[in-house]
Design brief:
This protein is about 45% helix and about 5% strand. By secondary structure, the chain is mostly helical. A two-stranded parallel ribbon has the order 1-2. About 20% of the residues are buried.
């Protein structure tokens, strides 16, 4: 990767072209990140829920550690929390936290994901 590429990646400026997708209506500013078909399998029974919302430029996963989240099940949980709790207020909080996360340059997660020992996503029943 070039030096410019590293700077663009570190500051998330490489995400700016996705604004075109937002303006065209294919994406939202906030929502689960787009995934490839192979990743959809990792969502298991929750895959259909993920497909019910538009993908976003930023979301729970980005403001809660992004690449520092090593277990894919943690990403699934964050995405499903967004699907369950989506609202204008939640989107505004995520947008504000995104600015903070980019400014911090991803030095630390803003929230720690707690997962049950079984890895179960039973949090969907909460609310």
């Amino acid at each position: 990767m070039t030096r410019l590429g590293r700077i663009l990646r570190a500051t998330s400026l490489d995400e700016l072209p996705q604004l075109i997708n937002v303006l065209q209506g294919g994406m939202s500013l906030v929502g689960p990140r787009p995934i490839v078909p192979d990743e959809l399998k990792k969502y298991g029974e929750y895959g259909s829920l993920l497909l019910m919302v538009k993908p976003g430029m930023t979301g729970n996963w980005q403001v809660n550690g992004r690449s520092r989240i090593v277990e894919y099940s943690e990403r699934v949980k964050l995405d499903m929390e967004y699907v369950r709790d989506q609202s204008l207020a939640a989107d505004l909080r995520i947008l504000i936290r995104t600015v903070g996360a980019v400014a911090e340059n991803g030095r630390r997660p803003l929230r720690t994901v707690q997962q049950s020992p079984s890895g179960c996503l039973d949090f969907l029943a909460e609310r």
